[in-house]
Amino acid sequence: MNNFNIHYVAAGRGYVEVEDVVYELGPGEAVLYFPMQRQRYYSSEEDPWDIRWFHFYGSGLQDYLIERGLHHSLLWTIRQSASFEQAHENLLLEAEEHRMLHPVRLSTLTYALLAEFIEHATPLSPVKSNNSGSRILELLPVMQQEAVKPFILEDWAGRLGISTYYFCKLFRSVTEMTPMEFITRCRLQMAKQWLLERKSATIGQIAEDAGYPSVSYFNKRFMEHEGMTPSAYRRLYGGA
């Protein structure tokens, strides 16, 4: 998935698989996935969980979370669960009542919920060593920031001091996609955001800023990923 994902257990129990190890989560515990991380989680059959979840993304957000060490653990416990659940309820009500019509309000409530998580979350799993997978994970925000620039595989492999073959193999093992597929998702994610925020910009301007000088190729890639044209996406989610 091309965004962050937090699943929080409000009641019951469930399981999360991390590198073929199964961890059990109970009330007040959560799993935080970074963009492009493999996700596998499921409820207990004997005591089914009641979960609260939200997906989010934002410019510079991945750097912010990595600086605070949140990439070192997938599993967390929330010390002040009541305030976290209330912040989630506020976001849920806004999304249910107004969908995407008030993006500023949605962003404010999302950051408020994320702030609750950052302030009160304590890792459940041990800090991972700086292995090859972590090196790829730490490189992802840089690739995301520079996604609109021409993609040169040799340059990215060189940043880790490894061959292009090993870079692609390692990248796929961590993200389950190729480096170019990741760049494409990043470009389209930015394009989707700009289509809603920059209402006066033409599709051609959005395409070029997202790294696609050819509007027809941009439309083709957008249609493949979103099932609609950029213009249709803007009409559907752009509001009044």
TrEMBL record:
Pfam families according to UniProt: AraC_binding, HTH_18
Keyword Transcription regulation applies: yes
Residues annotated as domain HTH araC/xylS-type: 137-236
Keyword Transcription regulation: yes
SUPFAM superfamilies xrefs: Homeodomain-like (SSF46689), Regulatory protein AraC (SSF51215)
Keywords, ordered alphabetically: DNA-binding, Transcription, Transcription regulation
Descriptive protein name: HTH araC/xylS-type domain-containing protein
Organism in which the protein naturally occurs: Paenibacillus cineris
